[in-house]
Design a protein that fits this description.
Blueprint (H helix, E strand, L loop, with lengths): L5 H4 L7 H12 L5 E2 L11 H11 L14 H15 L9 E4 L2 H12 L5 E6 L4 H8 L3 E6 L15 H6 E6 L12 H14 L2 E5 L25 E6 H4 L8 E5 L1 H12 L7 H12 L1 H25 L12 E5 L6 H12 L1 E2 L1 E2 L10 E5 L4 H14 L9
Parallel strand pairs: 1-10, 3-4, 3-5, 5-6, 6-7
Antiparallel strand pairs: 2-8, 7-8, 9-12, 11-12
Helix pairs in contact: 2-13, 3-11, 4-11, 5-6, 5-10, 12-14
The structure holds pyridoxal-5'-phosphate (PLP).
Length: 394
Amino acid sequence: MPKPSANLSKLPPYLFAELDRKINEAKAKGVDIINLGIGDPDLPTPPAVVEALRKEVLDPATHNYSPYSGTKEYRAVCAQWMKTRFGVTADPDTEVLGLIGSKEGIAHIILAYAQPGDVVICPSPAYPVYNNYTVLCGAEPYTLPLKPEKDFLPDLKSIPADIAKRAKLLFLNYPNNPTGAIANEKFIKEALDFCRQHDILLCHDNAYSEMTFDGYRAPSFLSAPGAKDVCIEFFSLSKMYNMTGWRVGFAVGNKDALKALGLVKSNTDSGAFKAIQRAAATALAQSDHLTAQVNPVYQKRRDIVVAGLQRMGWNFAPGVATFYLWVPVPKGTNSSAFCTLLLDKCGIVTAPGLGYGPAGEGFFRIALTVPEERLKEALSRMEKNGVTARAKAA
Ligand SMILES: Cc1ncc(COP(=O)(O)O)c(C=O)c1O
């Protein structure tokens, strides 16, 4: 057998592997595991969307190959949603591209731009695909730390001039996974100016734009004047409407960047199943109505867990977006040790911060993806077993 590509062996170690092994071991012993580790909604896709798919799948016109860039109808609905939701005008033919989930688009934009010698600026902690796909392309990720004292917004001025010169792409993601942080207008302008100055494409991952609480509405980076000159944005229906398994999203923004992404896609895949695109259009058309049903559920879960953490000594304030809580691990321990302790003593799975890059150390991520009763049960197990802010590593 030939050896897989050398780039494959350069991928960082999979930090959840040891945890996965322990989870399986615990499950085999019959432990009642509470899994707060994965960002996969437990709530079902809204019935109206499921019904749309049921109807559309019966239409044979949906059964053949779909255009690689998404159907004209789907792109028109995406453009209309951008207009209604953010006031952003996008030409559905040149400034919108259908995606088979936003992960696919994020990976392929890296393939479209980054080759050996190029740099991709990747925040840390972050969704691992930005860094890892850069490595797969043989390009060089530059790690841009997100620090709690800066509200998890990066310091763009800290990027060395030679890195900025070689950089092709800058990834940002607000509302942020894993920290739950949000971006303000000043920072968005700063990021766009930085990219304009250094001829970098700003890739804004807006997968959590609709998962917000306490009246907060997340912005599109494309609302800023001139943003389309240097920016594309990725949207995902996965988290917005509990549709992770459906694999549907879209990219919008700079037409040259979308053309390059489209070229990669036309050589890689075909568009998402047409029936799914039609059902996704149904979801986007009633977006506010659908999110108004889901977000209060996550908001209530957030309040329960934050109150519980505070009771256990954590000095932790609730954020206004995403279903993640990014919580500091107790002093004297590290993220892997603390997540192992939570699993061993309480049967609770959480994600160690280090799994999201070097700057993720010192934190663990809780996903609010189980019902209230299970969250209460998790908190009570922690209190009962003394796995609190004052806990020591085993
Ligand atoms: C920040 C971020 N971006 C993108 C994605 C990918 O979403 P999808 O491919 O389901 O659209 C995820 C999924 O967890 C995510 O957390």
